[in-house]
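Lab meeting, item 3. Inverse folding demo.
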């Protein structure tokens, strides 16, 4: 006579399977996070290469744009007259020239319907390269953008990365929002210790502290409570708008980097990420580094400055 399993034996087998699953699950999650982190670093690497290619072509790193009320203008070029942000200027150097050209009307600074609709279409096209896969999926998110040269975009693409604007991002007080033709750039390269900021035109030669020792673009801190809502002022605009905290971050002793934490820093201009232990940063030479959250404040500030004469090495 065949003998079946007893209830006790079945319970023991189920318990053993449960224990094995419990042991394997953390390892699987760690492997997935490692893969996502690798993809995030690859995103930064591509931004670094695109920035260097732009610098080679235009003789400066991507400009930071004008102000959050402006989207990119494909007829304005890559210098300080480009109102769109650094994310916009990088598009042609990331095999996204067709997206960059959306809305071209042959007249820089105009607000034609062609330009507005092109900017709207671009803002509503998410790109995986600008999103950390550990934090957010590639989709549209709630935004508050109603900029001068773009039709309203209540749902838009976002970015999880911010440029190094050093000690100040310097957007510009442009009185005539209806045309965008009244502005005063002054001496933009002298306005910030960073590399990308409002109407910047910083060349490699101006990174006098060394390209391997100066931040370029890194992961940005974001409170998890606002991943989806667009309610934080540091994550409420469309991806390609000009100088704004959505795509800018400070690097000073008063603005250290942090891991994303619920309930902390609703509106933030800090670097950081959702990763444990460290956040990713691409340097001005295009190399990608993992920067510990416990980095010394002075070292963090020195790495955020291109020309203070205080050269710092990235802690190993």
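The presenter then showed the designed sequence:
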């Amino acid at each position: 006579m065949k003998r079946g399993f007893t209830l006790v034996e079945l319970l023991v087998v189920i318990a053993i399977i449960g224990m094995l699953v419990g042991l394997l699950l953390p390892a699987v999650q760690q492997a997935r996070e490692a893969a996502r982190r690798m993809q995030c670093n690859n995103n930064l690497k591509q931004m670094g290469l695109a920035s260097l290619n732009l610098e080679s072509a235009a003789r400066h790193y991507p400009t930071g744009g004008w102000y959050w009320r402006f989207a990119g203008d494909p007829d304005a070029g890559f210098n300080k007259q480009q109102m769109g942000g650094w994310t916009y200027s990088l598009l042609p150097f990331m095999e996204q020239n067709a997206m960059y050209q959306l809305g071209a009307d042959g007249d820089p600074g105009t607000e034609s319907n062609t330009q507005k609709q092109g900017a709207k279409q671009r803002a509503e096209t998410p790109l995986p390269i600008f999103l950390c896969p550990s934090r957010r999926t590639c989709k549209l998110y709630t935004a508050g953008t109603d900029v001068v040269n773009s039709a309203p975009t209540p749902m838009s693409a976002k970015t999880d990365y911010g440029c190094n604007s050093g000690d100040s991002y310097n957007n510009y007080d442009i009185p005539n929002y209806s045309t965008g033709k009244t502005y005063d750039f002054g001496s933009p390269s002298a306005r910030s210790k960073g590399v990308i900021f409002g109407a910047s035109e910083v060349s490699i030669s101006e990174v006098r502290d060394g390209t391997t020792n100066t931040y370029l673009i890194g992961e940005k801190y974001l409170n998890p409570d606002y991943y989806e809502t667009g309610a934080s002022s540091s994550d409420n605009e469309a991806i390609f708008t000009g100088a704004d905290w959505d795509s800018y971050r400070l690097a000073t002793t008063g603005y250290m980097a942090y891991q994303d934490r619920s309930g902390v820093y609703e509106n933030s201009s800090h670097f950081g990420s959702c990763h444990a232990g460290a956040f990713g940063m691409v340097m001005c030479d295009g190399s990608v580094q993992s920067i510990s959250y416990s980095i010394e404040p002075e070292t963090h500030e020195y790495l955020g400055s291109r020309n203070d004469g205080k050269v710092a090495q990235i802690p190993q």
